[in-house]
Design goal:
- By secondary structure, the protein is mostly helical.
- The chain is built from five helices and no strands.
- α1 runs antiparallel to α5 and α2 runs antiparallel to α3.
- The longest helix has 92 residues.
- It is rod-shaped, with a radius of gyration of 37 Å.
- The two termini are 47 Å apart.
């Protein structure tokens, strides 16, 4: 009974060893699949980051362009500001304060143009600089809106970039420590 008991014991150990080997191989396949999935997720995050970086660069360029346009408009305003002020004073002294208010309180270029046409001011009086000043002032407002919108877009893109960087970092940590 000695050798047959030893043989049975050896067979049981062999069977147990094969079972543990299969379990380890199954876990290894699972780990390989998880590694592949994490690598794919990291790659996807990297591609998204690169696309976002390109978008951010484009938005920054658009902001610089909008700021340059606004600065150009400000320079044009400064160039005619004194003449416009003189014309406004003349309108006020001439009793045309309603006309002056109508020109300066317009909320858009088209509204300003409509008021000028209605009042006939530009044709009747020397108000060219005042009208140009009003138009430029409205342009500045529109340009500021563009700048603010682009800056908000940039902030949203930067927030998304931070989220993607955080996600990518978590995936890398999981890849190196979580397996």
């Amino acid at each position: 009974a000695g050798p047959s008991r030893e043989l049975r014991h050896t067979r049981d150990e062999l069977h147990d060893l094969r079972r543990r080997l299969r379990d380890q191989q199954t876990r290894a396949r699972g780990v390989k699949v998880r590694i592949a999935a994490l690598n794919l997720a990291i790659t996807d995050a990297q591609i998204a980051l690169e696309n976002l970086d390109a978008d951010i660069a484009e938005i920054r360029s658009e902001i610089r362009t909008a700021l340059a346009r606004r600065d150009e408009t400000r320079a044009r305003i400064e160039a005619i500001q004194e003449l416009a002020r003189d014309q406004a004073v003349e309108l006020y002294k001439g009793g045309s304060s309603d006309t002056l208010a109508a020109l300066l309180e317009a909320r858009s270029v088209s509204e300003l143009n409509d008021r000028i046409e209605l009042l006939g001011v530009a044709a009747e009086q020397n108000t060219g600089a005042l009208v140009r000043f009003g138009r430029l002032r409205l342009q500045i407002q529109a340009q500021n809106q563009v700048v603010f919108a682009k800056e908000a877009q940039l902030a949203r893109s930067r927030d998304r970039q931070a989220e993607l960087l955080d996600q990518q970092s978590r995936l890398r940590v999981e890849l190196t420590t979580g397996l």
